[in-house]
Amino acid sequence: MSIDQQIGARIRELRGARGLSLDRLAELAEVSRAMLSRIERGESSPTAQLLNKVCAGLGITLSTLFAGAETPPNPLARRADQPVWRDPASHYLRRAVSPPGTGAAVDIVEVEFPPGGSVAFDNHRLEGLDQHIWVLDGTLEVTLGDSLTRLETGDCLMMRLDRPILFHNPSARPVRYAVIISAKGNRA
User: What single string gives the DSSP state of each residue in 66-111?
Assistant: First the structure.
């Protein structure tokens, strides 16, 4: 099964578990029903921006989407077993580092972002979540709403996921950073 088919099956599973019709999720996610249907059938390679909208409609984070329900809870996530996904638009590589299914209120993701790459997320529907961006190597520009912050190796920025965010690598080499997402309450 391709990664697109796995993502589609997971979205269909989560939609069903929430009792949402395809039309209702399309409305909540602010995407077309046709696009959502293509994603669920594995006929589309959704971008990070599009998946973020679908996740917001489901009331989950990207980490929850990639965790997979079939994975039994285990407090250890070996690097070789951590799900990896590449955004077809920005080409950033996303690795879900946190052990899935543990019920922890924190998700850790490692991102490798290519030179000159940018990706935007509209997070106004993900209130109740905080995010830390910790630059492990390189330079990253983060625009939160109207505020631009330049991060260098070792810098860490905490933000609420309640405004649009733009990530940009202004340099000529990849930037590697960790994203630590924490829920203030019960998480899906």
Answer: HH-TTSPP-S---GGGS-EEE-TTT--EEEE-SPTTS--SEEEEEE
